[in-house]
Amino acid sequence: MRDATTDPFDRDDLPVAPGATGSLLRSLLRAHRARAALAALVLLLQQAAVQAGPLLVAYAIDRGVPAFRRGDHGPVTAVAVGYLLCAAAAGLLQYAFVRGAARINQDVLLDLRGRIFRHAQALSVDFHERYTSGRLISRSTTDVESLRELLSEGLQELIGVVLAFVYIAAMLLWLDLGIGGVAVASFVPLYLLVRLYQRRAAVVFAERSTAIAGVIVKFAETMNGIRPVRAFRRERANDAVFADLNHRHERSNGDALLEMARYVVGSRLVANTAVAGMCLWGAYRVAGGTLALGVLAAAVLYMRRLYDPIDRLGMFLNSYQSAAASLAKIAGLLAQEPGVPEAVAPRELPAARPGIPGREVVFEGVRFAYRTGGEVLPRFDLSIPAGQTVAVVGSTGAGKSTLAKLLARFYDPTEGRVLLDGVDVRDLSTPELRRGVVMVTQEAFLFSGTVAENIAIGRPDATREEIEHAAKAIGAHDFIAGLPDGYDTDVRKRGGRISAGQRQLVAFARALLADPAVLILDEATSSLDVPGERAVQRAMDTVLAGRTAVVIAHRLSTVEIADRVLVMEDGRVIEDGAPSDLVTGEGRYADLHRAWRDSMVG
Question: Which Gene3D superfamilies match (predicted)?
């Protein structure tokens, strides 16, 4: 068995360069710097209004009460009015901050989800074959939601607590240097407690993020494969695996709550000890006449205000550790480079030759190996003239589909070049390549939406008349017209509302509408019944006319339409010729053809 440590795709988290998480967060916030600065200013003013309260209390006790006893109600009235004004200002400023921060929060999350989706689409087929769709779903949902909690609630708590610390420390030092010094000294054990919690919680939340991703992956895989699950009675086995993953997630959540509980108990112990010590020492000083009673009252209120947010700081740290673990996974995903990068200096294909819509295809000294296996094409040379249809046959693992994937540039060769009319496909921009080369696979994937929308994927700007013309040309119009809403019928998830043969006809209509110079058919009829295969073969006659075509053939009935047949074995062409010539010989193709004919008779 392959060691899991050798391939990051075997783990939930992808490698992250030092500082990548911080760089991602800064890049997300960069566009909102002005609004973030304004929100910070609003919160600064709000905290100033909030923290004015204990000062007013001290003034009322030390100045207002003695004046009130003398019959002067002015100081007490001023304190009451000032307190009400500060409370009103704090409320209004809090509203303004929450509203502004919420807008920034939503814009950041909108940007992040868009980045994940666009980047995932840009990554190569190799990446998606190794990194499950369930993990991608987890990155764009659960992990983004963790960041939402941090931005919407956690940052406000953090900034509020930091400002409170600064304001209160300054006020206490200003009111009385001794009391202020004691308050500042009490920050030290609290700081050590926070650091301990951060270290322990980082491990726990990374495990929790991995655990929920495992739950999502298993759920998505099971629902996508529900037919084989039911056919092979995998329900009990899947239940057992899912229960194990679910318990792992439960344990990680429990560990997170336990760490939070430890932090809250420790912080409250520090807070209560500090307040109790200040009360005792302050009372002693008041009794001795070295400290005013109002100053002591203000100091105690400030200390309570200082430590009351400690639990909220714990909630921020909770959100922060969860978001940090999630953001690291997102950063690892966004750091992945496409295996088939865009051309640095893109070239265009030369103008098509008159009367020949196809393009010449050349494999020149091509070698290729998948990352997870040995070399598939040891050295491959092939030339396909423009307009020729070439069928490629051979046993499983011979390299047929690899040939198609290299031509479609789902992968790049390890060595050598794939040329289209003399131009290396790596030098073509993606839109130029996709206009020139189209691939129809064994599974004709249809997206949720109407039949017309699925055909129009071949050329999004096509008119309704052009869509219907393409469907008529390949023989799909009659069955489409017979659907409940015709071309406007919703095919549902993966085209489940229509048969496999009908989905394949829609795929051919899509390819015909795209009007490519080179068409690749990768076992496009292997999953069809005989009537469906015949319908698709009739469509193939229309679609392939005049184009260069590479047909990966599983059923030899497909080969009959080819001008030329290549028989592959172990990544090499062992036979090459016209079907009529090879079938009468004594080679590998003749053996395959005889076996196929015998199976048809049987």
Answer: ABC transporter type 1, transmembrane domain, P-loop containing nucleotide triphosphate hydrolases
- How confident is the model at residue 4, as a pLDDT? 40
pLDDT exceeds cutoff 60 at 5: no
Report CA 91 to chain centroid distance, whole Å.
38
Q: What are phi and psi of 566, to 5 degrees?
A: -115, 130
pTM over 0.90? The answer is: no
Confidence label for 525 from pLDDT (cuts 50, 70 and 90): low
Q: What phi, psi does 538 have (nearest 5°)?
A: -65, -40
Which tokens in the block code for residue 119? 């980047």
Which amino acid, one-letter code, is at 156?
Q
CATH placement of domain 4-334: 1.20.1560.10
**pLDDT, tens only, 457-472:** 888 888 999 999 888 8
Segment 80-105, tens digit of pLDDT: 888 899 889 988 998 898 888 888 88
Range 273-280 contact pairs with CB under 8 angstroms and sequence separation of 24 or more: 273/186, 274/182, 274/183, 274/186, 274/303, 274/307, 275/300, 275/303, 275/304, 275/307, 277/182, 278/179, 278/182, 278/183, 278/303
Residue 414 CB coordination number (10 Å): 13
- Contact present, 512 and 546 (Cβ < 8 Å): no
Q: What is the arithmetic mean of pLDDT over 153-158?
A: 68
Indicate if the pLDDT at residue 490 is higher than 70: yes
Output the CA angle 3-124-411, nearest 5 degrees.
90
Helices (H), 225-234: 226-231
Tell the residue number behind the tokens 């939402």, with chain if given: 148
Which H or E run includes 274? helix 235-288
Spell out the alpha helix ranges (H) of 408-519: 430-436, 451-455, 464-473, 477-481, 500-514
Distances (CA, A) of 268 to 307, 317, 578, 602: 8, 16, 85, 83
d(CA 328, CA 44): 30
pLDDT surpassing 50 at residue 3: no
Backbone angles phi and psi of 180, in degrees to 5: -60, -40
pLDDT digits (tens, 9 = 90+) for 264-285: 788 778 878 888 887 888 788 8
- Measure the N-to-C terminal CA separation of the chain; round to a whole number of Å: 41
Contact 520, 392 (CB under 8 A): no
Q: Answer for the pair 307, 165: CB distance below 8 angstroms, yes or no.
A: no
- From residue 547, give the alpha-carbon distance in Å to each of 181, 186, 437, 515: 85, 80, 10, 9
Q: Where are the domains of the chain?
A: 4-334, 361-601
CA distance 115 to 108: 11
Cβ-count burial 537-560 (b if 16+ within 10 Å, e if not): bebbeebbeebbbbbbbbbbebbe
Q: Is 30 exposed, middle or buried (0-12, 13-18, 19+ CB in 10 A)?
A: exposed
> Which one, of 110, 111, 100, lies nearest residue 159 by Cα?
100
361-601 CATH choice from 3.40.50.300, 3.40.50.11690, 3.10.310.10, 3.40.50.10420: 3.40.50.300
Angstrom distance (rounded) from CA 255 to CA 267: 18
